[in-house]
Specification:
Blueprint (H helix, E strand, L loop, with lengths): L2 E8 L2 E8 L6 H19 L7 H7 L6 E2 L2 H16 L9 H7 L11 H9 L6 E4 L5 E4 L12 H15 L5 E5 L2 E13 L11 E14 L4 E4 L2 E4 L14 E8 L2 H14 L1 H10 L3 E6 L4 E3 L4
Helix pairs in contact: 1-6, 6-7, 7-8
Amino acid sequence: MKILSIAFRALGTLNTIEMPEIPDGTGQELLKKIRDEIMAWDDRLSIFKTGSEISGINEKAGQENVAVSESTFALLMDSVYYGRMTGGLFDITSGPLASLWGIGKKGDFIPSEEDIDEAKDLVDYQDIIFEGPLPMKAGLKRAGQSLDLGGIAKGAAADRAVSMLKEAGVSSAVLDFGGTVSVFGTEKQIGIRNPFDRDGEPVRTITLKDASCVTSGTYERFFYKDGKRYHHILDPKTGYPTEHGIASVTLIGKNAEELDALATSVILLGAGKGMKLAKSRGALGVLIMENGQSFFSEGL
């Protein structure tokens, strides 16, 4: 059986899709169509592109609402849902805090308490405004607020790509959207990265079938200052990097978008509450703690 593949950059990462050729021989055209769709998502959702819908919302915060596409509107609505589910820990309005800390961009800079409090005050997913049904518009209540969908966009894009493949009659596929992996109709062994060794062997391996897998960790961007480690996963309640001792969390389930949101939330909630939430949503997980201990969901 001929295997087709495509690789492209979007949503800040390298994305790959592998699938068998379909009976009518148009598989490569289908892959290009999906690539174009996901790249269009990037054009709408990126905070780094001045013409994107999200950039437009951020620029007009506190002034006016901005017309958005149906997919952007739906993703914003989903993000508010996950915000409620996590008690506000998953919050796509955390942009002011992330910009203030600039972890990975500002060396070992630590903001002042005053600046943290000021940025923290701007974070509130309940300040996202929705207008509809047509034209669909979205906005932010206060000047200085900003959206960042980096914690959910890859998962949502993977789900969209899977839907397009299945609607076209594709029987099996493996998608890797920057570590957000979705598999259907076949099996794929997935290595769980060792957060303490950038180049080492996977610390665990799982077999994925008809499911998605998402990993989030505090090892991706960080710095040390005065012997203390500061990473990029910020708690919107405190304004500081969370300190629950989790190095990485890997979640396995059916919905990549939800797993994306939950993975970060587990780190913010801590091992006990976080895995309880994941279990309540039907997700299995692997936790690797900063002290090297590992924990697994029952049944994994």
